[in-house]
Design goal:
The protein has 338 residues and is of the alpha/beta class. The chain is built from twelve helices and twelve strands. The strands form two sheets. The chain has a six-stranded parallel sheet with strand order 3-2-1-4-5-6, with helices on both faces. It has a six-stranded parallel sheet with strand order 9-8-7-10-11-12, with helices on both faces. Helix 1 packs parallel to helix 6, helix 1 packs parallel to helix 10 and helix 9 packs across helix 10. The longest helix is centred in the last third of the chain and has 29 residues. Pfam families: Glyco_transf_9.
Length: 338
């Protein structure tokens, strides 16, 4: 296997979900070239993935919003880049028409995808020469890892590996030594939200514990919500509007991340940050984060968590940090001269 194409086009959370698959492929085929097709709006994370040789990033979302010559030119450029190489295998782990069209355009004798019953758009099956085997009741991340491993004939390790490098900021963040906690309260749909009053109570308690609360936002409405939270949480900071890279750098510099089922909370877990993810309307078992001693998902579809649930989860994911600090203090004390 000399060259492999992975297709996962959107969105940020799905980009993070695909990282363990990239690590598997790199481990199974250490000499292979691995390319990844992702929409230009989400291409940052693939570009940080260790093991990816080339990211092909057509501006599909941009063209949908604005059918300009610039966006059309970006898509044509991506198609030329795609067809410049011949692939031994193409794996479409997205499963919609736009990803299937990318698979079909790729120059490869083997194009793998899900069966029609598992596709977001069943007609996408037209593009595949081979159908992934059954995946059972697996998480979205493990499902991708398992079906591709079975299709290409390699073994996967039980533990997931997220190998990525976020670019360093121009100047160090949080240099004052005060631990930051980022609260990702915004969601893509109203049904997935958690009450503002509950966020305030969590923020107030975390501030009392010594965290400086940071509140990111992505729209004017989210900024207004962040400002309302900051008005009630001592010392809270409403962050400026940031790029994906700038938010990722803040996440990488944080001591704790608490938020809804969003891409940046998934990224926090991938970066090894103590993370708590809240669910209110989607499936925590399938989409959640569950890294032992590091991350926890609470709540579920139709069963939102309480404030007490969130604070207990924070205690759980930060316990290793506290234990490590106590152990280090004890070791330093034992080594000090009498």
């Amino acid at each position: 296997m000399k060259r492999i194409l992975v297709i996962k086009i959107t969105s940020l959370g799905d980009m993070v979900h695909t990282l363990p698959l990239i690590s598997d492929l790199r481990r199974a085929y250490p000499e292979a070239k691995i390319d990844w097709v992702a929409d230009a709006s989400c291409a940052d994370i693939p570009s940080w993935a260790v093991g990816v040789d080339r990211v092909i990033s057509p501006p599909l979302r941009g063209f949908k919003k604005q059918r300009s010559l610039r966006n059309l030119g970006g898509i044509l450029k991506a198609v030329r880049a795609l067809r410049r190489e011949k692939y031994d295998a193409v794996v479409d782990v997205h499963g919609v028409m736009k990803s299937a069209i990318v698979a079909r355009l790729a120059r490869s004798p083997r194009r793998y995808g899900y069966g029609a019953e598992f596709l977001g758009e069943p007609q996408a099956v037209f593009a595949y020469t081979d159908i992934f085997g059954p995946h059972g009741d697996a998480t979205c991340r493990h499902k991708m890892r398992m079906v591709v491993a079975n299709a290409l004939g390699y073994e996967i390790e039980p533990r997931e590996h997220n190998a990525l490098r976020v670019p360093a900021p121009a100047t160090p963040l949080n240099a004052d030594g005060v631990p930051r906690c980022m609260l990702f309260h915004a969601t893509s749909a109203e049904i997935k939200k958690w009450p503002q009053a509950s966020w305030i109570r969590v923020g107030q308690e975390l501030a009392r514990r010594g965290y400086r609360i940071q509140l990111p936002w992505g729209s004017d409405k989210e900024r207004a919500e962040s400002e309302a939270l900051a008005a009630e949480i001592p010392g809270a900071e409403v962050l400026p509007k940031m790029t994906i890279t700038e938010v990722a750098q803040r996440v990488d510099a944080s001591a704790l991340v608490v938020g809804m089922d969003t891409g940046f909370v998934h990224l926090a877990d991938a970066l090894g940050k103590p993370s708590v993810m809240l669910f209110t309307a989607t499936d925590a078992k399938h989409f959640g984060i569950h890294t032992p001693g590091q991350s926890l998902s609470i709540g579920d579809r139709g069963a939102p968590p309480t404030v007490e649930d969130v604070l207990a989860a924070v205690d759980h994911v930060t316990a290793p940090q506290v234990a490590g600090s106590v152990g280090a203090a004890g070791s330093n004390k034992a080594q000090s001269p009498a």
